[in-house]
Each structure stands twice: as C-alpha cells, then as structure tokens.
Amino acid sequence: MSALIRPGHELVDRAQSVLVVIDIQSYFLGKLPLDVRAPLVERMAWLMRVARALDIPIVATAEDMARNGPLVPALLEALPAGQTVHDKLIFGLTGQADILKDVRASGRSTAVLIGLETDVCIAQSALGLASAGIRAVVIEDATHSPPPHHGAGIARLREAGVVIQSVKGLYYEWVRDLETHRKLGGLVQAPLPAGLTL
To answer: What residues contact residue 34 under an 8 Å CB cut-off, 6+ apart?
Structure first.
C-alpha cells in the first residue's frame, strides 16, 4: 500500500465487499422531496442488481416493520430470492446481534452502505461497523435524509474518516476492467438509472 493513501481509503474490492441496504421504506422515503424519491430508489435497486451480478452478498434491514412497513417493492424485487430482511429495532445496526452476525457471516471486510437516513441509521451503522473492525463505505448518491440533514450526515462521516463514494465511482471500483464491464451489460438486466452515466 502506498504511504500516500490513508489506511482504509484504498479502492473498494468487490471480493471483500458486502452491500448493506438500510431501511428503504415508504415511511422514510415520504420525508424526502418528491423529485428525489424515484431516482434515489432507481439507483439503489440498480446497485443491488450489480452486486448480485458480481456475487457480492447483500444484507438488508427495515426499521420496525410493524410500524414502518417493509422495504419498498423495487428493493424487494432486487434482492436475491429468499433473502432475509432484518427487522431493525436499533438505529446503528451493529447494536443488533443478528444483523451484525449476518454482516460478519458474509466473510467480507468492507461494508458498502446505501439507504436511509444518512445522519441517523447510515451514520450510526457506518461508525459502528468501523468500530467493529469492518471498513465502511457510504454511497453519497444512494443514501439520503430530509434536507438539510443529508449533507450534515455526509460531513459527519467524512470527518470521522469513513470513505464516501458515488454509485458511479463504486461501480468502476467493483468492476475494474473492460471485460467485466461488458459482461455486466447482459447480467444486470435493468436499465441504467436516470441521470447516471457510465
């Protein structure tokens, strides 16, 4: 590793990644500006399909499903068949033993986080994972909070040393070469989200 790269800020390796999908429920989406909701869900679902095509495991949570409902349909459809969605009853997922066990069971050292809300469950989960020895990478354009809290959450995480990445940037770090990029075109089976260029 180059001395110029801070530890934990190396490229994201797909062989060491687990995608963690946090609380993408209608209850939380309903707090966001209307024009943000559909594009955000499209990016999240597309990234989940990319992860599946690259054999990257997925861990999914939904907060207090009895009150807040399940993951939105587009995200449920993007999950592998039979995938468990953890009923998360704590803001930072590392505080709930079954979820942390699932992340650890993936055998991966890097948790890539997408979902809601950036300044609460994403931030607390990312910081908790880092404290547990798991590298956390937060995808800025696949996470959100009601304005102005998204920016505050990203700033908090960046100051703490958590890697902040974009959907496009993560895609290319996972893919790494033209052959894999070309193969994925036929494997993802979902159109590119509006506004995302590769």
So the answer is: none
Degrees, nearest 5: CA angle 155-29-12: 45
Length of the chain: 198
What is the per-residue burial (b if ≥16 Cβ within 10 Å, else e) of 179-198?
eeeeebeeebeeeebeebee
pTM, two decimal places = 0.95
Which residues neighbour 43 within 8 Å (Cβ) at sequence distance 6 or greater? 141, 142, 167, 193, 196
Measured CA to CA, the distance from residue 177 to residue 173 in angstroms comes to: 9
pLDDT tens digit string along 144-180?
999 999 999 999 999 999 999 999 999 999 999 999 9
Closest CA relative to residue 26, chosen from 67, 86, 80? 67
- Does residue 62 register a pLDDT over 90? yes
189's tokens = 């089976």
pLDDT digits (tens, 9 = 90+) for 119-135: 999 999 999 999 999 99
Whole-number Å distance between alpha carbons of 87 and 84: 9
For residue 141, how far is the Cα from the chain centroid?
A: 10
